[in-house]
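Hi R.,

Here's the chain you asked about this morning:
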Amino acid sequence: MQRLQTTARLTSTRLPSAVRRAKECGRQPLAPTLLVVLVRTMNQETPPLTVALDRVVDAAQEVVSDHVRFARLEAKVTLVRTVEAIGMLILAATPGLLGWSALMAALHLVLAARLAPAWSLACIGILNLVPALWLARHALQHVSAQSTTRGGTS
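And here is the predicted structure, written out as tokens:
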């Protein structure tokens, strides 16, 4: 009972003097301050459980909303980058295809002077078909290697 009354006195406005006296005696005033924190925490009114649950639900909804917003932003950025890459590919491929076509037409004129026109076109077709087949084979190997490293063949 005596300790309880002492504790009650310590938790009142005399706390700073009690802490000062403990320091003067060479003791650490840790226990009284921890007790004060505990008593003050117990004396504070805690919100009812329903209020706490409402806060938890609101916080969870806010987290989910933030995640959805972030996913939408990521999708938008990915879409913009993809469209930009496709546009750059089209811009780069158009002059390349025109130049390649002009080069093949000039090669046809050179070969047509020495071979029959049909043989000239056949040679140009083979000249274009061999690298195309090699590139297709290389691309298929690359795709199959990626699918096996991902853990499946989907």
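One quick note: Confidence is low (pLDDT under 50) at residues 1-15.

Cheers,
M.
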